[in-house]
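User: I'm preparing a small set of examples for a lab meeting where we compare how different chains pack in three dimensions. I only have the primary sequence for this one, and I'd like the structure in token form so I can line it up with the others. Please keep the answer compact; I'll paste it straight into my notes.
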Amino acid sequence: RVVGLFLYEQARSITTNVFKFIVNFFFMLLITFYLLLDSGRLVSFIVKLSPLPEDQDQKLIQKFKDIAAAILLGNGLGGLIQGTLGGIVFALF
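Assistant: Understood. Below is the structure token output for the 93-residue chain.
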């Protein structure tokens, strides 16, 4: 009886977590799609709300783009280096 109850709880937990993951992944894809699709409109809306002058808004947007590109490049290179070194170590041992 205890083992059956334990197995039931584990199966229920796994099923619930898999369902939550699928729903969250779907919403992530949906939000990412629409953010990429309407990014220009979103930026222009935020610029309209901004109290800064237009030239400062453009500098700020460019700074965000530069920082985002640097973060993506840095993380990509870091992941590539870690993966390469991990593969070499795994192959040696």
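A couple of notes for your slides: The chain is about 90% helix and 0% strand. The helical segments are 2-37, 39-49, 54-92.

User: Perfect, thanks.
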